[in-house]
Design a protein that fits this description.
Helix content: 25-40%
Number of helices: 6
Radius of gyration: 16 Å
Number of strands: 8
Shape: globular
Order of helices and strands: EEHHHEEEHEHEEH
CATH class: Alpha Beta
Largest sheet: 8 strands, mixed
Length: about 190
């Protein structure tokens, strides 16, 4: 399914449209972005991306956003909702490599987690990152993710193997670290379950 509009301080996460597909395909073909993590799909023809977009709209367990800055698409985000346990898994949060180092990824990640924890009332969120993805690990640990597992020698590149790092971010850490960053009051405030 498509996520609604989520506003960060400098980026907006919004529903992707057909006009975004050439950018998404270019991002999927960029080896710098591919090296950073799991992208939505392999580079493909525009018709294939239209099919992927239509499938994403029907998938009730996966949410897709386009990340926009100054009215221009600059990245993609996807998350998987894991059953009725109110938890999820970030599948992708990718910024155009030409725009790295401007705080767009960190702002998008914070806005996305406000949505997860304050609106959807998730109890936890997981992400898997290559151990050499310094940008992704920096953003995750800044938010409050902690390593809980590791896959050894998962990725092969530059003549060597790289580990896969599994990180988890829980609701208590979110409330402790980011309660002052809320765009709106938590859905769960005052509700007992």
């Amino acid at each position: 399914m498509f996520g609604g509009v989520i506003r960060g301080k400098i980026v907006t996460l919004r529903t992707p449209g057909e006009s975004d597909l050439p950018f998404i395909n270019g991002l999927a073909a960029d080896m710098r972005a591919r090296r950073e993590g799991q992208l939505w799909g392999e580079p493909a023809a525009l018709a294939t991306w239209k099919e992927r977009l239509a499938e994403a709209a029907k998938d009730q367990d996966t949410v897709v956003w386009a990340i926009e800055h100054d009215a221009t698409i600059v990245g993609m985000a996807r998350a998987r909702i894991l059953g009725g346990d109110r938890k999820g898994h970030i599948q992708e949060l990718t910024i155009d490599p030409e725009r790295w180092g401007r705080g767009l990824g960190g702002d998008a990640a914070l806005a996305l987690h406000r949505y997860f924890f304050d609106y959807l009332d998730w109890k936890s969120c997981n992400v898997e990152l290559a151990a050499d993805n310094e940008r992704g690990i920096h953003i995750a640990t800044r938010l409050g993710y902690r390593e809980f597992g590791r896959g050894h020698a998962v990725y092969y590149r530059d003549g060597t193997y790289v580990d896969d790092v599994w990180l988890r971010f829980d609701r208590a850490t979110w409330d402790e670290r980011w309660s002052g960053e809320r765009e709106y009051a938590s859905f769960a405030d005052g509700i007992t379950r």
